[in-house]
Amino acid sequence: MTVTATEFAKLTGTYTIDPAHTRIGFVARHAMVTKVRGAFNEFEGTAVINGDDPAASSARVVIKAASIDTRNAQRDEHLRGNDFLAMDDHPEITFVSTAVRQTGETEFDLTGDLTIKGVTNQVTIPFTYEGTAADPFGNLRVGFEGSVTINRKDYGVTWNAALETGGVLVGEKIVLEFEVSAIKNA
């Protein structure tokens, strides 16, 4: 997809993430042999897009830790507990951007502060602009997709169990996945 500067300029505005059409997910290695995929079902966020100067754009997302969903109730309860997300003490996971850099025609690096379990680290998430569309309700929608790998231990999420055959039950590296649909505010 080729996007002109004029098309990007038309995107300028403030957008609200549409949770019904957005996925904030993750992938973790399990028992060294497979992957577990999950998502957070409750979150809110905004993006300010400056189409003339992408570096002046910003984003903010707040995720409810209790909304973690791996399609296994027992595992989800364990993830909500003190071994992992400690959601009673840290009910929210947040991301607040600090920089945006255009890296290609439709590619952007979104750098910001990711806070999990009360620990904040800077991450850079490569995003691809997927396009815009007017929906049947007259809203202008914009789409972006991106992912980044983090080490959960960098956020104090250190629980694990050794396996008889060697290795551990839960991998340290977690892939965070973002499929974002946002609606331009009136």
Would you tell me which CATH topology applies?
Lipocalin
Q: Order the strands across the largest sheet as they lie in space.
A: 1-4-5-7-8-9-10-11
* Poorly predicted spans: none
- Give the rounded overall mean pLDDT: 89
The whole-angstrom Rg is 18 Å
Judging from the principal axes of the Cα atoms, what is the shape?
A: elongated
Instruction: Write the element-wise H/E pattern from the N-terminal end onward.
Output: HEEEEEEHEEEEE
> What is the CATH domain class?
Mainly Beta
User: Which percent bin holds the helix content?
Assistant: under 10%
**CATH architecture label:** Beta Barrel
Count of all domains: 1
The biggest sheet, with number of strands, parallel, antiparallel or mixed sense and barrel status, is: 8 strands, antiparallel, barrel
Which structural class do the helices and strands define?
mainly beta
Terminal CA distance reads 27 Å
Helical region count? Answer: 2
Strand content: over 45%
Please identify which CATH superfamily we are dealing with. Answer: Lipid/polyisoprenoid-binding, YceI-like
SS elements, strand count: 11
Family: Belongs to the UPF0312 family.
InterPro entries: Lipid/polyisoprenoid-bd_YceI, TTHA0802/YceI-like_sf
Protein name: Polyisoprenoid-binding protein YceI
Pfam families: YceI
Task: Please give the structural blueprint.
Layout: H1 5-9, E1 13-17, E2 23-30, E3 34-40, E4 43-49, E5 58-64, E6 68-69, H2 73-80, E7 92-102, E8 107-116, E9 119-134, E10 140-151, E11 170-184
Antiparallel strand pairs: 1-4, 1-11, 2-3, 2-11, 3-6, 4-5, 5-7, 7-8, 8-9, 9-10, 10-11
